[in-house]
Amino acid sequence: MSRLALADKRPYLVLSVIAALAFYYLRASDLPEFYLVPIKGSAVGFLALYCWLRHSSKSAHLLAAALVAAAIGDMAIEFGLIAGGAAFFVAHVITITMLLRHRRPPLESGESLVFIGLLLGTPFAAYFLPYDQNLSLPVALYALALGGMAAGAWASDFPRMRVAAGAILFVISDLLIFAGLGPLSGSPIPEYLVWPIYYLGQFLLAVGVITTLRKRDPELRVVPGGVN
Question: Where do the structural domains in the chain lie, given as residue ranges?
């Protein structure tokens, strides 16, 4: 598919990528925060529009709602970690609700180990990353929802190479944020890697879910007023 065809059929994906790249490069400029923060939020916000308009199922709309909450979190976190974390916590809960509608058959032993590792390993790692012990418990509680989202993606019947991989990238990006409160404090690594890893994770998750839903329920693909 050519770039023109992609822009014609999936304009919100194109706008999302443009916004994500714009934020990544413009944040090093002198552009006022008044303009920069909405650009950041629009990257995942356009993914939410993509999900809402590409499929009319409840699962697609739940994912769109989760992405709206995440877009709010992207903006809120620029003003405070707690405000951003609260919005992302809501996003994870909504995503988990959506994923529970698409559980795959019982996991095999090796798959179960990955599931448990994501569910429990994420908050365990998050708890020990911040140097400030007052942050350890709140971070771990948030990470329990984060790990639950990733574990739910792994245990869902969506393609793991997209949806589970996207969720795991989300986990990695957040652990880098928490590491910036501890062992990576003062390091440029979180500053340069968190956003691209996070955005790629959200992109893979959104596209993976919607592409799968459109194949399974083609009769729900066309939404009045949307782009087929």
Answer: 3-220
